[in-house]
């Protein structure tokens, strides 16, 4: 290959690469966050990326300069370096610079991490498209001044969600009000998993016996994918769920409808949900919060924690009063598929 032809190929590749790679961002929800938490975290991805790009460019520029300037030539064929012991000044420089870079990345990371322990303050109330029914309005009043709390529990291999303030539960799908911070309280029954809605923000572990919190908020109505980000066994790949962000009115209408029409979660149904296996989406009404959630961190009423929602053997009698004929009925917009228990191939 003649030299000018080779340069032309390199130049063509250099131009084509950025153009071809522009398509990559389109399908990565983390890079197109739909809520304030995701936006904050995106900054923590972009900042080190820019910093590291600068470092890499400087290092490669110096590398190229040294390689060309000190290359072997006939004039310096018998060159012997005068000193080979090293330079204290240079050693100090390239030890201190990485320390400064780590500090520069750590400071914003720590600041944002602590800020995300609190609910997002930016609120973008989406436009009203429907009006609340009276039942929905009374439900909305319960969470008006407080954040919406959702208990999240992973069980092999499904996601159990509970809305303690509203007295409803869902399995493998979520509705949230757009423009309102949601306080997710996470635990696990069985193996550890990781609760992750990439479009809204970073993941958080959910572990048995632990009660970890994650604030998330959707700015606009939409449908987002949620999943487990932590391998937990053969059904792990199917531990995905849809998150439907709705306008507050639509959300409370939905919640009131579930409360009014979904079957109650019986002890038997709840215990069958804890068995390994995959299920479709489900919704339940009722109050499986026997200890009466009081908003405190140590009394979240979560499944898997003895003080809270029923775990097998500790189900309170009050949650055991529904008609068994209705249990298991699916009340969600999704297609209910899959079977309970035993299906763990
Ligand atoms: Cu992690």
Small ligands present = copper (II) ion
CA-based shape: elongated
Enumerate the spans where pLDDT stays under 50 for 5 or more consecutive residues: 289-345
How would you sum up the major sheet?
A: 6 strands, mixed
| SS-derived structural category | alpha+beta
Strand neighbour order, sheet with most strands: 8-5-1-2-3-11
Arithmetic mean of pLDDT: 79
Fraction of residues in H or I helices: 25-40%
Beta strand count: 11
CA-to-CA gap between the ends? 56 Å
> Please, what is the oligomeric state?
single chain
Protein name: Cytochrome aa3-600 menaquinol oxidase subunit 2
Keywords: Cell membrane, Electron transport, Membrane, Oxidoreductase, Respiratory chain, Signal, Transmembrane, Transmembrane helix, Transport
Organism: Alicyclobacillus cycloheptanicus
Domain Cytochrome oxidase subunit II transmembrane region profile: 22-120
Describe the structure.
By secondary structure, the protein is of the alpha+beta class. The chain contains six helices and eleven strands. The chain has helices at 3-21, 36-69, 88-115, 134-143, 248-261, 267-273; strands spanning 148-155, 158-163, 168-171, 173-177, 182-189, 193-197, 201-206, 212-216, 222-228, 240-246, 282-285. The strands form two sheets. Strands 8-5-1-2-3-11 form a six-stranded mixed sheet. A five-stranded mixed sheet has the order 4-10-9-6-7. β2 (158-163) and β3 form a beta hairpin. The chain is elongated and about 90 Å long. The model is unreliable at 289-345 (pLDDT under 50). It binds copper (II) ion.
């Amino acid at each position: 290959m003649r030299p000018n032809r080779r340069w032309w190929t390199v130049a063509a590749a250099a131009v084509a690469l950025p153009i071809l790679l522009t398509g990559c961002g389109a399908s990565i929800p983390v890079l197109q966050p739909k809520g304030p938490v995701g936006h904050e975290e995106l900054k923590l991805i972009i900042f080190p990326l820019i910093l590291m790009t600068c470092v890499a460019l400087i290092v490669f520029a110096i590398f190229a300069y040294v390689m060309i300037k000190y290359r072997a030539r006939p004039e310096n064929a018998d060159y012997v370096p005068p000193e080979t012991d090293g330079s204290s000044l240079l050693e100090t420089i390239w030890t201190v610079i990485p320390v400064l870079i780590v500090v520069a990345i750590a400071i914003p990371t720590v600041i944002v991490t602590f800020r995300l322990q609190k609910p997002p303050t930016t609120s973008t109330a989406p436009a009203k498209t429907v009006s609340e029914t009276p039942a929905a309005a009374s439900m909305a009043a319960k969470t008006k001044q407080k954040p919406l709390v959702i208990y999240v529990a992973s069980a092999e291999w499904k996601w159990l969600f509970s809305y303690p303030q509203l007295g409803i539960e869902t399995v493998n799908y979520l509705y949230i009000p757009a423009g309102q911070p949601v306080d997710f309280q996470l635990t696990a029954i069985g193996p550890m998993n990781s609760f992750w809605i990439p479009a809204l923000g970073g993941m958080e572990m959910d572990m048995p016996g632990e009660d970890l919190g994650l604030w998330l908020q959707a700015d606009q109505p939409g449908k987002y994918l949620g999943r487990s980000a932590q391998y937990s066994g053969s059904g792990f790949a199917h531990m995905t769920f849809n998150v439907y962000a709705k306008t507050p009115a639509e959300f409370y209408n939905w919640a009131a409808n579930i409360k009014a029409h979904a079957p109650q979660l019986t002890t038997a149904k709840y215990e069958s949900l804890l068995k390994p296996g995959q299920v479709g989406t489900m919704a339940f009404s009722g109050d499986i919060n026997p200890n009466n959630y009081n908003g405190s961190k140590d009394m979240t009423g979560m499944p898997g924690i003895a003080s809270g929602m029923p775990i097998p053997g500790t189900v309170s009698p009050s949650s055991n009063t529904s008609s068994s004929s209705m249990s298991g009925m699916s009340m969600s917009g999704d297609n209910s598929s899959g079977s309970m228990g035993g299906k763990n191939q």
